[in-house]
Amino acid sequence: MRFFSRTPVRTFLVYPLVTLIWELTTHAGRIEINLWFLPLMVWGFLQYRLCGKYRMTRGGGGPGPEIPPERLVSTGLYAYTRNPMYLGHIIFLTGLTLTLRSWFAGLITVAVAVWFHFRVLADERNLSVKLGPSYVSYTKSVKRWVPGLF
């Protein structure tokens, strides 16, 4: 069961499957797919994967918060947003919502975004202790989620 408790497994496998099952069940086996939004799903997944590899290469540590980076990573997408991996999850789920035109996926997306926000607050407290003043300075110059906004 540990496999299904992993955030990437839930985002990129479980939530899409559950949403497809929900939509097929509630729409008598027929769903409308809007392929124009499929690139959002690809973007979100690639952002998550590539930023994870970049972070592990530059900062050490593991792919998730269980093994935090050993060094601050403030280049690449990390120069624009402090959480590009989590943001990749949200972009993917937004793409899922729009591709399947699913209010159910929309609810999942909102719930996951709120959950990530609280997770980030805890991550930031831990990273402030682990990485010290350089991380605190970084948080003052780079937005948590969307560059230039918040």
Q: What do these coordinates show?
A:
There is one protein chain. The chain is mainly alpha-helical and 150 residues long. The protein has one domain. Helix content is 67%, strand content 0%. Helix 2 (7-26) runs parallel beside helix 4 (84-100), helix 3 runs antiparallel to helix 4 and helix 4 (84-100) packs antiparallel against helix 5. The radius of gyration is 17 Å and the shape is elongated. The model has no long low-confidence stretch (mean pLDDT 93).
Order of helices and strands: HHHHHH
Distance between the termini: 35 Å
Task: State the total count of DSSP E strands.
Answer: 0
- Strand residue percentage: under 5%
Uncertain stretches: none
**Radius of gyration from CA coordinates:** 17 Å
Q: Mean pLDDT, rounded to whole units?
A: 93
Structural class: mainly alpha
For the largest beta-sheet, the strand count, sense and barrel status come to: none
Number of structural domains: 1
Number of helices: 6
Helix content: 55-70%
Principal-axes geometry comes out as elongated
